[in-house]
């Protein structure tokens, strides 16, 4: 049985596969590499088959985003191959480095309670800066807003070794996510209704409620292009981020928390962010935020059932970041993780 399986989910990502798959294969340490294709129309599957015969291809019937796509791909892998100890969920637009696997695997081997872990994520374009998607490990504040060591909102720190430690975090990024395979399947995988964005944060929140841990490994580094499927300025990405943040908050917030007060506060703050989009002429993003809130309200009956089920399963108490990251960043002017904590 292989200890580790690298699984790359792709949709119309032939260019990224051509650019980055050779390094993945060169630094796979003899572990199998899978490409799970979400019904691409850009010749991705024939291209991989012709140029990378060592890669195992999983052809999915449709594009179900990151969440549903990985759920289907890993279910196929479990049914047709030997189950590894770890999956590495790797975006197609990530450049790996020599020795990137071993430090994370060693950390997880040392502590069996770690079920999710990430390396440091730096920018492919500006290689000394941390990248938006995960940076050096993420956290969630008491209103459900997410931020990272190395990246808070639009401030990206230069990596000069300040996050080279291995430490527990609240969430690890889906751009390069190591997970224990058995726990992933036992917990039902990602919430497919998220489609894309924040599904990995939701899953990290859920597994911590069961007593597991999430870590970041500062001894490993990869480089992420970012925006490979949806550009950062895409209104659909705005919609998914705002909607999924609310879905995640409602599902996972503790039973004794001031939930509806937080939802109301989020409505006001999201409205304020809409004003900023409007001033920048990005009216489509404003409409995306409005759509996100209505989609959240429409999902409340289903979310309530999920919330009750999760509360019944919970065995551990977890602690979110106690301060408001919005207040710290925009009002107090604290722009980096070190200043805020």
TrEMBL record:
Annotated keywords: Glycosyltransferase, Transferase
Domain Glycosyltransferase 2-like: residue ranges: 6-184
UniProt-listed InterPro entries: Glyco_trans_2-like, Nucleotide-diphossugar_trans
Pfam family, one: Glycos_transf_2
CDD domains reported for this sequence: GT_2_like_c
GO MF entries: glycosyltransferase activity
Family to which this protein belongs: Belongs to the glycosyltransferase 2 family.
Protein name per the record: Glycosyl transferase family 2
Provenance organism: Spirosoma montaniterrae
Lineage: Bacteria, Pseudomonadati, Bacteroidota, Cytophagia, Cytophagales
